[in-house]
């Protein structure tokens, strides 16, 4: 008699001593840094989520880090006003950050990172309660309905979702009256951002889960403009917030010494259909 057997999913489970570690991605940070990456390894805790405590000497928050089958994972720790919900902890020059983790065998693992004073400011805030010195000031956030587009109503002090930093977020309610396009635009008048290399924006799409494509557009005072789509970039996730970093070199047609508008345009699904509903934005800024 002949027969066939299918065998799958063969691996070693257990055996050997548990190995574990927790670490920062650098030995220290400055007050101008915006985040750190925390790496965790626990060979006895594969395919689980484990908590790592972070202390600045005054405040302590917990980071839930998802581990893969080998017991390895990482998560971004943000620097700013301490906020457990957004994995953010305050830093000051002369202080020390301390990581503490109790592994699956009951052993305590730690790592530290010193905080030093920054030199010149290397960020410029646009819509941020953390990056405030300096700020790229804007006179208004324009609703595209004012330019004969679809309505997109902005609310600069929304508390509908937990913010990345500070106490409020920018919400935009996108509607569709058949105009084919829509969004909002920050009006800077004329701003010089030529010294900055990277644009950062945080987006929460929980109220618009089908969102796949979204335009980011800079325009100067002479009409020079470049628009990129967030679909071309891979975000770093922090809960419901997606953090996008876009090199300013990706806006080649714009005179960055005379920037007039920053546009947030046209929410679409993967089939390029225009979407309606609410999107949330927070902690929008530039990095040198």
Could you outline the blueprint of secondary structure elements for this entry?
Layout: E1 20-24, E2 28-30, E3 35-42, E4 49-55, E5 60-66, E6 72-79, E7 88-89, E8 96-102, E9 108-116, E10 123-127, E11 140-143, E12 152-158, E13 169-174, E14 183-191, E15 198-204, E16 213-220, E17 225-229, E18 236-238, E19 241-247, E20 259-268, E21 277-287
Parallel strand pairs: 2-9, 6-7
Antiparallel strand pairs: 1-3, 3-6, 4-5, 4-8, 8-9, 10-21, 11-14, 12-13, 13-21, 14-20, 15-19, 15-21, 16-17, 16-20, 18-19
Would you kindly provide a written description of the structure presented here, covering whatever features stand out?
- The chain is mainly β and 288 residues long.
- The protein has strands at residues 20-24, 28-30, 35-42, 49-55, 60-66, 72-79, 88-89, 96-102, 108-116, 123-127, 140-143, 152-158, 169-174, 183-191, 198-204, 213-220, 225-229, 236-238, 241-247, 259-268, 277-287.
Short characterization:
This protein is mainly β.
Name the features:
288 residues; five-stranded mixed β-sheet; Jelly Rolls; 48% strand; 0% helix; single chain; 21 strands; mainly beta; globular; Immunoglobulin-like
Order of helices and strands: EEEEEEEEEEEEEEEEEEEEE
Beta percentage is: over 45%
Instruction: Please estimate the helix content.
Output: under 10%
The stretches of 5 or more residues where confidence is low (pLDDT under 50) are none
- How widely separated are the two ends? 73 Å
Total individual domains: 2
The CATH architecture category of the largest domain equals: Sandwich
> What is the C-level CATH assignment of the largest domain?
Mainly Beta
């Amino acid at each position: 008699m002949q027969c066939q057997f299918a065998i799958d999913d063969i691996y070693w489970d257990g055996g050997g001593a548990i190995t574990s570690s927790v670490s920062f991605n650098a030995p220290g940070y400055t007050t101008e840094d915006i985040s750190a990456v925390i790496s965790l390894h626990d060979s006895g805790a594969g395919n689980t989520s484990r908590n790592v405590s972070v202390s600045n000497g005054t405040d302590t928050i917990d980071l839930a880090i998802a581990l893969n089958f080998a017991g390895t994972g990482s998560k971004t720790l943000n620097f700013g006003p301490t906020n457990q919900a957004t994995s953010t902890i305050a830093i000051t020059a002369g202080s020390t950050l301390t990581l503490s983790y109790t592994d699956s065998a009951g052993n305590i693992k730690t790592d530290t990172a010193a905080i030093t004073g920054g030199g010149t400011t290397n960020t410029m805030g646009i819509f941020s309660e953390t990056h405030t010195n300096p700020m790229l000031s804007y006179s208004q956030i324009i609703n595209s309905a004012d330019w004969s587009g679809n309505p997109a109503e902005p609310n600069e002090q929304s508390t509908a979702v937990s913010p990345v930093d500070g106490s409020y977020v920018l919400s935009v309610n996108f509607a569709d009256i058949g105009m084919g396009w829509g969004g909002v635009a920050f009006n800077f008048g004329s701003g010089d951002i030529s010294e900055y290399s990277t644009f950062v924006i945080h987006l929460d799409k929980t109220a618009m889960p089908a969102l796949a494509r979204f335009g980011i557009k800079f325009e100067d005072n002479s009409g020079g403009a470049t628009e990129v789509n967030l679909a071309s970039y891979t975000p770093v996730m922090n809960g419901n917030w997606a953090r996008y970093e876009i090199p300013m070199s990706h806006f080649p047609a714009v005179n960055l010494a005379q920037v007039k508008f920053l546009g947030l345009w046209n929410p679409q699904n993967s089939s390029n259909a225009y979407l309606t509903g609410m999107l949330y934005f927070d902690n929008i800024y530039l990095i040198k």
